[in-house]
Structures are given as C-alpha cells and as structure tokens.
Amino acid sequence: MKKLILLKYAELNTKKDNIGLFLNQLKRNLESKLSPYSVSITFDRGRMFLNLSESYFDEVIGILQKTFGIHKIMIGYELPNNQMETI
C-alpha cells in the first residue's frame, strides 16, 4: 500500500459556482511551495490528495501546516483497485 497525504479544506466547501477557482489557486500555491519535492496533486470538491515519496513526508507536512486554506491534514493509503481483501 502506498502512503499519501489527504487534505481537507475549511471554508472552500461553502463556495458555489466559483469553487473551482479557489481549489485551483490552492493547488497552484501548493505546487509552488512544494516545488523542491516530487509531489503529484489531485483533488475533488471535498479533498485533495498528495502522492509523494515517504522519504520527505515530514518536511512536506511541516510546509502544509503553514499553508492557508487547509483545514485538516491526514495520512492515507492508496489501495489497488479498491480491493476489500486488502482492507
């Protein structure tokens, strides 16, 4: 199982038609702050996922803790094909 970081946003969930604008801006801010690291960022309306090497997990979390717009930082695991046996 691959470890990843899951981010939840606070007030961004309350935006209506322009939520995409705010989420894209948060993604660009994160890409800028995390440019020294090889991080892949994907998101949907409720959360953002960061795929990165575990070797600099703690450094990235330290940066995320100082980033405006993030409500909660959680560690998750990516499972292949949502296999219930693995869970």
What would you say this structure looks like, in words?
This protein has a four-stranded antiparallel β-sheet, covered by helices on one side. The protein has helices at residues 19-33, 57-64, and strands at 2-9, 40-43, 47-51, 70-78. 8% of the residues are buried. The chain has 87 residues and is α+β, with helices and mostly antiparallel strands. The protein is globular and about 40 Å long.
Features of this protein?
2 helices; 30% strand; 26% helix; 87 residues; alpha+beta
Q: Structural class, from secondary structure content?
A: alpha+beta
Coarse shape: globular
Return residue spans where pLDDT drops below 50 for at least 5 consecutive residues.
none
Write down the overall mean pLDDT.
Answer: 85
Rg, Cα atoms, Å:
14 Å
Give the N-to-C terminal Cα separation: 10 Å
Oligomeric state of this protein: single chain
